[in-house]
Amino acid sequence: MGNKLYHDKRPREHRLIPREHYCHRDGERGWKPKQAFENEASADNYIESRRYFRDNGYRPYQCTWCGKWHIGRINENK
Question: pTM value?
Answer without folding.
Answer: 0.65
